[in-house]
């Protein structure tokens, strides 16, 4: 990321099992995803990555899923 992607100040988010800790979080995440509005959900859980402008332009995305 260049730190200023899209219409928000977030460069991305770091989501772990603790981000969605219980069924209430799971319901809230489902609604946020369905509404295409996850920023408030992630902000409330301190999961957003806000770096500010980095001066780089990168287009790689890596997702790691670790089964339990």
From TrEMBL:
Specify the domain of life of the species encoding this protein: Archaea
Q: Name one Pfam family in it.
A: MOFRL
Instruction: Specify the MOFRL domain's residue ranges.
Output: 1-60
Q: Which residues form a coiled coil?
A: none
This one is known as MOFRL family protein
